[in-house]
Specification:
The protein has 371 residues and is mainly α. It contains 17 helices and no strands. Helix 1 runs antiparallel to helix 17, helix 6 runs parallel beside helix 17 and helix 11 crosses helix 12.
Length: 371
């Protein structure tokens, strides 16, 4: 397909799709069940949004990468082998590539919902109207959904070895689908370990924040440099980490600052809810739900360390890592609403999340009209 540039019409199409999703999922938020036909329609619209996510710059960047790979310049494309193979040997068109990558991502997300026995209507409402825009943005989505599907299988294994091994397989496999996956995998391992400490777990996690800060401040950069000297796949991950740290700070406008605040506030509100429900639960939560409360809390605490200035620009890594929490956020919102544990904090997180979705798309539309 020929090169396409971002235009107001294309971004408006994304806004139209989101409005359709809001209209078709709203009944689930009001407590009504979605029919099988409506659920299938919503999933198809979600896939269409991911296939044609014109609002984000990455859509056009991946299109350029696809053209390079198809022209025989794979060495110039900084992507994992799986995506290079798809572009070079499997997909004839760029849209085919997006169908496979984001189609698989949606499949893993839906499998996670089913594994955790969530209310599918509620899960789709929160996913479509808060997190779909970021889900559709970058290829890391496949690694994120894959690892959380594996995590859900582990948490629901109930001491069944085959189920545990099945989950471990997908968590490990996600390592190869994005260079930032080790950070997410590490967070899940910490979550499972800390969860065993019982009610004290969230307090211990917060108290250890200064320790994690010092470790990252003194060790992490050296760690990346050591891995950079190794001739292995780990060196590729280290390269990414070092690049995150070496990127120059950029000035951003007030609109972008508002965008970041709106995007990240729901994560922190859900982390606060997770802390409360782990320390003093409203009801007796299933163990697998407590595991997702802990995953949410660990991801937000861990990513927040990178807000601080280590003498290198870690803000890029902070923004990328916090988005790993989009899957547990959908799961927790769905579970809490379905269990009628609806606090003002949760309501605020939902309202801000939906406002951010439309603000982000409107901001993208505005930018295309002022270029």
């Amino acid at each position: 397909m020929g090169q396409i540039s971002q235009t107001p019409v294309l971004v408006f199409l994304n806004i139209l799709l989101i409005l359709i999703l809001l209209a078709t999922t709203y009944n689930a938020f009001r407590g009504k069940n979605l029919s099988t036909a409506r659920t299938a329609f919503i999933i198809i619209v979600c896939l269409l949004f991911c296939m044609f996510s014109f609002w984000g710059k990455d859509w056009y960047g991946y299109m350029e990468y696809f053209a390079l790979v198809r022209s025989g310049f794979s060495s110039r494309v900084p992507m994992e082998e799986f995506y290079l193979w798809l572009m070079a040997d499997v997909c004839s068109h760029y849209i085919d590539f997006r169908i496979i990558v984001w189609g698989l991502s949606l499949l893993f997300l839906l499998l996670t919902f089913r594994t955790l026995k969530l209310n599918i209507g509620l899960a789709l409402f929160f996913f479509c109207n808060i997190y779909l825009i970021y889900f559709s943005y970058a290829r890391v989505t496949l690694a994120i959904t894959m690892m959380f599907y594996g995590y859900s299988c582990i948490c629901r294994a109930n001491h069944r070895l085959y189920k545990t091994l099945w989950g471990i397989f997908w968590v490990i496999l996600s390592f190869y689908f994005h260079k930032s996956a080790p950070l997410g995998i590490s967070s899940l391992l910490v979550s499972l370990f800390v969860l065993k400490l019982g009610r004290k777990a969230p307090i211990i996690l917060l108290v250890s924040f200064p320790i994690m800060y010092m470790l990252i401040n003194t060790i992490l950069n050296d760690y990346f440099q050591i891995l950079l000297n190794e001739d292995s796949i780990l060196s590729e991950y280290a390269t990414t980490g070092a690049l995150y740290f070496d990127m120059q700070n950029t000035r951003i406008g007030i609109s972008a600052i508002i965008n970041r605040i709106l995007e990240r506030t729901p994560y922190y509100l859900l982390a606060y809810i997770s802390f409360k429900e782990l320390y003093k639960p409203s009801i007796a939560h299933p163990r697998y739900i407590r595991a997702f409360f802990m995953a949410e809390l660990v991801l937000i605490v861990f990513s927040s360390i990178f807000i601080f200035d280590f003498g290198m620009n870690t803000n890029i890594l902070y923004g990328r890592l916090i988005r790993f929490a989009q899957v547990p956020s959908v799961i927790l919102m769905s579970y809490l609403y379905d269990s009628s544990i609806i606090s003002r904090t949760l309501k605020l997180a939902v309202v801000i999340g939906i406002i951010n979705c439309f603000y982000t798309l409107s901001y993208s539309l505005y930018n295309t009209m002022t270029v």
